[in-house]
Write a structure and sequence with these properties.
This protein is α/β, with parallel strands linked by helices and 495 residues long. It has 13 helices and 23 strands. The radius of gyration is 24 Å and the shape is globular.
């Protein structure tokens, strides 16, 4: 097994694939490298001498500059490197699109064809509170339903999409709450939905229902707690109607071209940009080659790598939309007086990520090489096949919920530090390294750490098989653990 990895021939640092001790001599890049300091696994080692202010390169691009003299063989991390990013930038449309394509395959998964023609990979039952006040009552309904139908009948899961909002909100916050909840109600993974309100909230049920547009009234029911005597009894009656309506639902072969996947990372480490994120990039390119769809979000984790995405915009209109996506999110930070470029979390830094460029260049590898065909605002649903960008923050729960709301059937989530959470759609946890996969088997679904011993072609084929099995009904760890959550973006005041 190799001990160091350089991501690009232009790189001036390498990543330690195991803990390396001071004094070790390693043969790398056709020369001997004397290690000057202990280097944790996933962290960077200087391959050249750096003077103060010298640019440091990883993934073939600058990830910051040295804040002091660094000798060849020394540890490069937050103590001696700083971001090059500052303020807003001017962008120019310089197309540079070289997609990796894969041969077409007659590949299918077993999914649910809905009445409106859309496809789901789950037949889930959702209870959707319009306001946080009724979360507890909704949980009582869920518990009672599961006691009466422990096998759930034709449903795969039953979930209360709990959230604290729906009242005391104005402007964009009210709009975003309503949009995400509407998106969830209309998600093709939902085989039945009970929309449950209190009766005096801002997000009132009658207005919510009027905004639904066309919907299947045999699969979407509405209840207002203040308008009935026993809301649990009334809710159970409606859930029983949904249970009966779904009894004949069945899976059928669906072309993989109808699969929508969200691309997400969290608890990233120094291996994220080496193993799991490149694997997702290869899978995204494969899926798009088959006519499918992938979505990249986490806008703050595009900062420092945004020019690469802009160069892949399929036309000037998409380029301009991408520029707005980036600049509007920078303005969001600045409007609160917060720094734009201090994104890496303590866990990221412990795992070997030093600057935002370091994080972003690794993060955006999840999007592979395909052209960017569309840019979605928060709460918007997918419009085009191919790779889309979605407005949402880096926060794991908020971003994954936004991906689900956009009509992603599942979220592919890479992690080097580990996390147990799941969105309200299947959330596939891809381990970046062997250790986290071994230590957290009850959280992890797939081990991308195997890429350190196996070829990308081999691991990609295994991953394609696994994703198709999940789309066909195999439960992910978050589903097995009964962890399914919704988180909604908030930017304004609370009344």
């Amino acid at each position: 097994m190799q001990q160091l990895m350089k991501m690009n021939p232009r790189d001036t640092v390498a990543v330690a694939l195991r803990p390396i001790q001071a004094g070790e001599e390693l043969h790398f890049d056709d020369q001997m490298l004397l290690i000057q300091q202990d280097i944790p696994q996933g962290h960077k080692i200087a391959l050249v001498d750096f003077a103060p202010e010298a640019i440091i390169t990883k993934y073939g691009y600058p990830i910051g500059h040295a804040t002091e003299a660094i000798q060849r063989g020394q540890w490069v991390h937050t103590h001696n490197i700083k971001t090059n990013l500052a303020g807003e930038e001017e962008y120019e449309y310089l197309p540079d699109i070289h997609p990796v394509t894969y041969p077409k395959r007659e590949l299918t998964f077993d999914g649910y064809r809905r009445k409106n023609g859309k496809v789901g990979i789950r037949n889930d039952l959702y209870i959707v509170p319009t306001v946080g006040c009724v979360n507890g009552i909704a949980e009582q309904m869920l518990s009672t339903f599961k006691s009466l139908h422990p096998d759930l009948g034709a449903f795969d899961n039953i979930t209360v999409l709990k959230h604290p909002y729906g009242c005391s909100q104005l402007g964009d916050d009210h709009r975003m709450t309503r949009s995400i909840l509407l998106d969830a109600v209309k998600h093709p993974n939902a085989g039945g939905v009970l929309v449950f309100g209190l009766g005096c909230e801002n997000n009132i049920v009658t207005e919510f229902r009027n905004m639904m547009g066309d919907y299947d009234d045999s699969r979407v029911k509405f209840l207002v707690a203040q308008e009935v005597g026993d809301e649990v009894e009334a809710g159970m009656a409606l859930l029983e109607e949904l249970y009966v309506a779904a009894q004949d639902d069945h899976r059928e072969p669906i072309p993989v071209s109808e699969l929508n996947v969200g691309l997400k990372c969290g608890g990233s480490d120094g291996f994220s940009g080496i193993t799991a994120n490149p694997l997702l990039g290869a899978f995204s390119d494969f899926l798009i080659s088959q006519g499918g769809t992938s979505v990249l979000t986490e806008v703050p984790e595009m900062f420092g790598a945004e020019k690469m995405l802009m160069a892949r915009a399929e036309n000037r209109e998409v380029f301009e939309q991408t520029v707005s996506l980036i600049n509007n999110f920078k303005q969001y930070f600045l409007s609160y007086g917060e720094p734009v470029y201090e994104n890496p979390s303590p866990g990221n830094k412990a795992g070997g990520i030093s600057t935002l460029e370091d994080k972003s260049l690794g993060c955006t590898q999840k999007a592979g090489t395909s052209p960017v065909v569309d840019v979605l605002q928060y709460g918007e649903k997918l419009r085009k096949k191919g790779l889309s960008l979605l407005q949402a923050p880096g926060n794991d729960l908020v971003a994954s919920s936004a991906l689900a709301a956009s009509d992603c059937h599942l979220v592919l989530f890479t992690t080097g530090r580990g996390t147990p959470f799941g969105s309200f759609v299947p959330t596939v946890k891809i381990a970046t390294n062997n250790d986290i996969f071994a230590n957290k088997k009850h959280w992890m679904d797939f081990n991308a750490g195997s890429l350190l011993e196996s070829s990308m072609a081999e691991v990609l084929e295994q991953f394609i098989t696994y994703v198709v099995s999940v789309a066909s009904g195999q439960k992910t760890r978050n589903e097995q653990n009964d962890v399914r959550e919704l988180a909604i973006f908030k930017t304004g005041v609370t009344l």
